[in-house]
Specification:
By secondary structure, this protein is mainly α. The protein is 74% helix and 0% strand.
């Protein structure tokens, strides 16, 4: 069977499954539906939110994100413009693209950054970039810490590997509900601007 025929088979199976289910009973939960697990996770998250150490960590991350946003996307009083501004951020990103890769990547980064400003998405896109950068740095620091701990401790290796595998058996919808429950103890998003 030729390769393109398999694409048609997959599309036909998708259409058949859709025709049979019509979007019903496909493991999608309504936004207001909560299971006992979600309620328990929200209670745990509320308890963590009351912990002064966790609250201090969250406040520190919020201060860092706010400082970076004021640096590159929000006006810094009394000036009506951010400290670096869109042209500076575009130039720095283009330079990083050239330094890390080559002139083609630098050109792609420059066109992307300028298009954010031209189409009016500058603040939203740079806010997303700031939050993503802070999240990546935080995840890398935690990942290195846990990786080293797992490498030197058999007890930590057994515990983290066993509990890490249990989270992989959840559907994406269940994972999203759990993350929402952990983020500020409810269904609202983790970042409310």
């Amino acid at each position: 069977m030729p390769r393109w025929a398999w694409v048609l088979v997959v599309i036909a199976v998708w259409i058949a499954v859709w025709w049979l289910t019509k979007g019903k009973d496909t493991l999608v939960m309504a936004g207001s539906d909560l299971t006992p697990l979600h309620t328990k996770m929200a209670e745990i998250a509320n308890g963590i939110g009351e912990n002064p150490a966790a609250r201090g960590l969250a406040d520190g991350i919020n201060v860092l994100v706010d400082w970076l946003r004021r640096l590159v996307s929000l006006p810094t009083p009394p000036s009506p413009a951010p400290t670096i501004g869109w042209l500076g951020v575009a130039a720095i990103a283009t330079w990083i693209g050239y330094a890390v890769a080559n002139w083609r990547i630098a050109l792609l980064v420059a066109i992307s950054m300028v298009s954010f400003g031209v189409f009016g998405f500058w603040q939203d896109s740079i806010d997303l970039l700031v939050v993503t950068a802070v999240s990546v740095v935080f995840a890398v620091v935690l990942g290195f810490g846990f990786g080293i701990w797992i490498g030197i401790s058999d007890r930590a290796s057994r515990y983290i590997n066993r509990n890490g595998r249990s989270g992989q058996s959840l559907t994406p919808e269940e994972q999203e509900k759990l993350i929402d429950a952990w983020a500020e103890g409810g269904d609202q998003g983790a970042l409310d601007y």
